[in-house]
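Form 7-S
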Amino acid sequence: MNHTTKITDQFHLDVYNRFPVTLTKGKGATVWTDDDRELIDALAGIAVNSLGHCHPKVVEAIKGQAEKLMHISNFYYNEPQARLVQMLAECSGLDRIFLCNSGAEAIEAAVKLARKYGHAHDRSGPILTMSNAFHGRTITTISMGMEKYAKGYAPLAKGFQKVIYNDVESLRQAFKENPIAIILETIQGSGGLDVASTSFMETVQELCNKHDTLLIIDEIQTGIARTGKMWSFQHYNIKPDIIASAKALGGGFPTGAMMAKESVASVMKYGSHGSTFGGNPLACTAAVASLTAVIDEDLIQQAAEKGTWLKQYLKKEAPSNRAIKDIRGKGLMMGVELTFEGRPVVEEMLKRGVLSNCTQGNVIRLVPPLVITRTELQKVADVLIASINQVHQINVHTK
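Output:
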């Protein structure tokens, strides 16, 4: 146990089931440990470091802004904020932007806006959420998502009603409650990388149009080119009223945003919502540099092409021993569902030089930097397959 591990374990709130690794630096899709071990990062800070670690344009932008102005109150204007909200409006097709610090805050802003809109239009129905959803760790967001994250935190926030994900009949039944809004991820990140079907999303849009229900898309993990589109909703013929974004938006620097149509956003007035740190010059500068790099380096197309290659390679090279139940996802947001517990596979991958993650107990989540090279991506795939084989053999021999 090194000094960093010892001190952290002694003083930090014990809420993370950490791996025994201390990371000290990173570049591109590579990170290094305190004992100079080199690892490929296929987790990217949980889909945050889409530009890789320490992208030179983001680093340069942060350095330059840090020497001028890091934080001011939103009582005043700042130029980086103006640039960012314009970029987000243009790339989302929406009109008004609220800047915050995280994905959970973006969802909170979306919920407040939806309810404000509902009150303004004399609507009191619920906000529909999905089974196996994950929208954050606040009391409101855990009230909207998976029960396991809400255990022990009652009383929870009210006004939400669950719909079975990808179940059209469940969806139609829920709309009988005259909901003011529906919120969903088109790919459920923490929910097991399940992908929304085209028929489900088309029905969502149909019902929203019919019932004047707001459509909120959580793009916190799927957005900013991750799925091979700037926004994952662009894979479907839908038009969201509200979008929540964070994670990759800041290029590794904490920032979040809620985007909305003018007709919806107009219900918010002075004092209706706010944030001390949201939209600060430093975070906005990082986000502008990050979005610019995504566009200039054609990372949307790269994510699409690399993701197609990865899925095909995994399906071709996957072990024939039924250890893999399914391979799903879009772009470089991939889930590999196993027939057994996934944590040992993640541990084996770490031993072999790749950082990864397991969600829902048995789904290996691969969300590497979009700048990852084909050689690095193939190593990730090969290490994953070898690790699955290794763990599977151990499971078979111990039974």
